[in-house]
Amino acid sequence: MNAQNLSAVTTTITVPTPELAWIPLLPLAAFIIILLFGRRAARLSAWLSVAALASSGMVVLAIAGGVFRGARLILSWPWLSLADPRWSLGLSVDGLSWLMLFIVTVIGTMIQLYSIGYMHEDPRFSRFFAYLSLFCASMLGLVLADHFVLLYACWELVGLCSYLLISFWFEKPAAAAAGRKAFLTTRVGDTGLFVGILLLAWTAGELRLSELGTIRTFLAPQLGLLTAISLLIFLGAVGKSAQVPLHVWLPDAMEGPTPVSALIHAATMVAAGVYLVARTLPLFTAESLQVVLAVGLVTHLAAGTVALTMTDIKRVLAYSTVSQLGLMMTALGLGAMSAAIFHLYTHAFFKALLFLGAGSVIHATRQQDLGQLGGLRRAMPWTAAVFFIGALAMGGAAPLSGFWSKDAILLAARQANPLLLWLLLSGAVMTTSYIFRLYFLCFEGQTHHAGGHPHESPRIMVGPLMVLAVGAAAAGFAGSPFLQNRFFHLLGDAHAHEGIDLPMLLWSSAALLAGVGLAWVVGVTRRNLLPEALRPLGHTLYVWASNKYYVDEAYDRAIIQPFLRLTGRLDRFDQTVVDGAVNGAAAAGWQVSQWKAWIDQHLVDRAVNGVAQTVRGLGAVLRGVQTGIVQQYLLVLVVSVVLLSVAIHR
Amino acid sequence: MPVHALLLLSNALFCLGVFGMLTRRNAIGLLLALELILNAAALNFVLYSRVFGAVHAQAFALFIIALAACEAVVGLAIILSLSRSAKTILADDVNLLKG
Prior knowledge:
heterodimer, A: mainly alpha, three-stranded mixed beta sheet, 3 strands, about 0% strand, disordered N terminus, B: mainly alpha, Helix Hairpins
């Protein structure tokens, strides 16, 4: 206990670390270089991108020592005002952000390596790597940011990159639409986050993430305000992490290249939401945690059922990600931040592995429909093996990574509410069930030859798969009693359970076996296990789930169609009323000017001309008098004088 | 004092001057006729100063003599330059400014 207290004290130590700037700047530099010169050397730009991210990873490893000793590494620079330290932007690394940095750099490097093989025929090869670099750079910046403003900037950059990458094959209308949908849907959440930050700046005036505890105590008397702020921040996370009701973009994001899906699902985009909630957890009140819990649980279970019914290999994985993110949010809602981040960490490994494995299948067969796949284990033994490891890890098989993280969440649930434990266990059955259904349908059974002759993927794709498989298998040990729960201590959670909880081990293993059994019996042999009476209900539920609970349709009907109708009406309003007013004003002006022209021509001009003619006529008359002969003038003068004098004498 | 006769003389002088002004074409002739008119006026002033015993009226006669001298100077100068540039001294040949 003494050692733990000591570590709690040492977390306050801050160490200025200028190296931190390198972590996001290296991929950013790679992005700029590739953008400027990438066209000439496509292959080189890919390796540059990989090297930049790997170097960032090296920096992350180099600073690990300080972080593990419990120090907070910082790098800050003043912004807006030199005097007020509240407005100094900065980077900061503690256990949580270090873990995120580790995930992003390791997974990101693997995915980029894999992409070299996957994208090698693409005409926009170098641009793809430029985007990947920017994506990783902005995610690293987001994780490093010690200020809400900086975090928000990176948050938006992540959104932008996801848009660029999801609609990377923008020639496909579906891909372009998916990118747009992702951008607009997450934008709804981003607006919430933005308003939350503004509210925080307005009320607390402090936006540094390292001062969250201070903010909490400052705002503690105004619980309602704190709830509102935390819920607005959570709205941002809901959009980014694809929670119900803003989850609709993530399955559509499958239109992008598979490595992008892997990156979005494992390391960057959706992890940002979970990270944000974990980071700002001090701000969450009991009420807002209830909301987080409810949203997470609904997402976990609903997305799990949808994943059971999907027939597209990538869509199954997409809904599984939504479901797993729901699980993480559930853990966050329980206040079990370390368990949630632990699951994020293990999930990053096995989900990247599963996605890249799926990408390998798609690359080999040009086929994504589960009905057209099967028996690939013989053609692609390595892919099948690593996929199997990934599926086991996801299902939570005993020593693999998923087991440890899922157990941590289940334990937290058991402490909170037994009912919650049962719900999560049923979710675990579903998880295992859909992932093994995917595995069985893809790699076992009869071989279809719809996709030509499948072949094992090139070494540059299989290599990263191997690394990720090792990670998916072994990453969980970091949070296991075998390594003294190092993971939880790093996150400052000193109260992590010691030793293996045996009942929990049995329960989760039972869930695993039940899931695998269900996957085989229902998913592959397609036997209906339900009793006769329940079959219509089961069928209805299946139809609902396979139609994704009609969420897209509901949005279409409730938001998009009314919006389009509104725009249609506004268009008509514009065409008739506004245009009519403008045209009417123009016509009236034209008419008035006609009248004015008439007046001008007939009255004004005539008056002016009349004056001129009068003057000219008068001049013509007077010119006759003006002969220029002096004698004449004199004669007139004399005659007039004579006449005048005669008149006077009269 | 033959006032009547002297008045007739000055009137005759004036009429002669006016007649000269109306009939002469030569600019020098015009000037001469003008002198006659002026002298007729001067004669009248002197005459009436004697009749009414107002001595200061004779000052006008002196004024008129000075004025006539000035007028002759300016007029002759104009006629001289006219004869140089227009090669004529006939008044009605100088009609450049006529509209």
